[in-house]
Amino acid sequence: MTGRPDVEAALAAFVPRPIDRPDLRHSAVAITIVEEPDGPAFLLTRRAETLRRHAGQWALPGGRTDPGEGPGETARRELSEELGLVLDASTELGVLDDYATRSGFVITPVVLWAGPVGELTPNPDEVGAVHRVPLALIDVEPRFLTIPESDAPVIQLPLFDRFVHAPTGAVLHQFREVVLHGRATRVAHLEQPVFAWR
Question: Are 142 and 158 in contact (CB under 8 A)?
């Protein structure tokens, strides 16, 4: 069983690597751990099909950082806007490595402990569906592909008989490595599929 003290200890032992890219916009995503009857899970969304960019893709709640915000504030604000789940700063457990996307952002993943949560209210303008994913489901080995457009490997994380790609797949793989196994595995070099470059 992975409880809050276990997650906090794993993140405290990990030294996250920031990315200094002034040319990219800052953003944050929330890896939100909720307590379910069968154990801890995290919140994963499918983006609404009506969105102009990355419609229908797997995503962690998140978005662009507003002026004056830190990553934790951004992650918690976006979680509230997307899923109606309001958390305070005491729920922030730590961050993982920054990840630079092909679409022009530096993402900081923020790990939050929400505890038991009731009904969520997804914003239909942004979220097509929300899933409470048991942590055990991401304790799997990813698949790595080579593509002619890049020298870096493309990561595919198996989930729900499909694959989750970077950036979400890379972030979740690092969460698995750091939190579930205590390994400081780096993922910033892992590539996104070409369809996510725009």
Answer: yes
Residue 197 host element (H or E)? none
Q: Which distant-in-sequence residues (6+ apart) come within 8 Å of 52 by Cβ? A: none
- For 122, what's the count of Cα atoms within 13 Å in the CB-facing half-sphere? 17
Q: Whole-model pTM above 0.90?
A: yes
Q: What is the pLDDT of residues 111-154, one digit of tens each?
A: 999 999 999 999 988 888 999 999 999 999 999 999 989 999 99
- Please give the domain boundaries of the chain with CATH numbers for all domains: 4-196 (3.90.79.10)
3-state secondary structure of 117: coil
Residues 6+ apart with CB under 8 A from 119: none
